[in-house]
Amino acid sequence: MLWKPKNKAFSILELLVVLFIIGLISIFSYPKIEDWLTDREVKAEVNSFVEYVEQKKNEVQTGKYPLLAVGVGNPMKLWHMTNEQYGIQMKVPAPGWTNRNDSKTGGKSYLNYYKACSCCLDTIDYAKWEKDTVNIYQWSNKVWHWMNSNICLSKESILDPGTNHIDFLDSSNQSKKGFVMICSRSNTSNHYQSGGSSLPTCNNSSKADYRYIVQMDRSQKINIYKYNSKKDRWALQK
To answer: Helix and strand tally (H, E) in the chain?
Structure first.
C-alpha cells in the first residue's frame, strides 16, 4: 500500500499573519511609490518640453526658419521670422526703421547690433515677427512653471538665447542659471496665482520636492537639474 502525504491547508491564524505582513509592507512602501509616481509625472513633462525645444532648434538649424522664439508662459506662444525679414535685419546699413535711426548702432539693426531677440515680439516696431497658431506647446495639468520668458533660437547660436533668469546652486555648490522651473501641482502653488494657498510656491523661494530646472547655455545646449531637498541643491541629471 502506497503512502500518500496529507494535504495541509493554511490555518486562519497563518493567513492573518500573512495579511498583516502584506499590510505592514504596504504602509511603509506606499509613500515611496507615491513619491516615485509624482516625480515621474514631473520628469515626463520636463522631457516633453525639452523635446519640443529641441525640435524647434532643429527647424532653425535645418533652415526651415532663420529665427524662432518660444514664448514660455501659460498659454505658450511661438513666433518665427521669415528669411526676407531676417535679410533686412542683418543688412548693413539696415533701414532706419530697424534701429529707429539710432546713430549708436553703426547702421546695424537692433537685432544685429545686440545679437538678441526683443522681449516683446507682439508689440515691437523695429522687427517683424510672424506669430504661429499651430504646433504650440501645452503644459500638462499636473505641473506649474516659472518663470515667463522667451527662448530665442538662431542658427549656430548667432543670437543670445536670452534664457538665463533663474539663479540656483548645483550639487557642487556652484552658481548656475536656468530659464524655467517645472514643479508638481501636488505640493506647490502657482507663482502667478499663489494668493491664499498654503502650499510652497513654484519658484526659487520654495524648498519643495518634485521640482526641475531646465537650463540653456549660450550655445543652446540644454541641461536638466533636479532639486534635492535634503541637500538643498540642484543635481544635474544624466
So the answer is: 3, 11
Q: Could you tell me if residue 226 is inside a domain?
A: yes
Which H or E element spans position 69?
Answer: strand 67-72
Q: Which residues pair with 106 in a beta bridge?
A: none
d(CA 85, CA 80): 10
Of 238, 185, 179, 188, the residue nearest 214 (C-alpha): 179
Q: Tell me the HSE value of 127 on the side-chain side, using a 13 A CA sphere.
A: 30
User: Is the Cβ–Cβ distance between 162 and 61 less than 8 Å?
Assistant: no
DSSP per-residue string spanning 116-150:
B--S-TTT-SSS--EEP-SS-----TTEEEE--EE
* Total count of domains within the chain: 1
Is 165 part of any domain?
yes
Question: Is 92 a member of any domain?
Answer: no
117-130 confidence digits (pLDDT tens): 988 898 999 999 99
**pLDDT-based confidence at 9, cuts 50/70/90?**
low
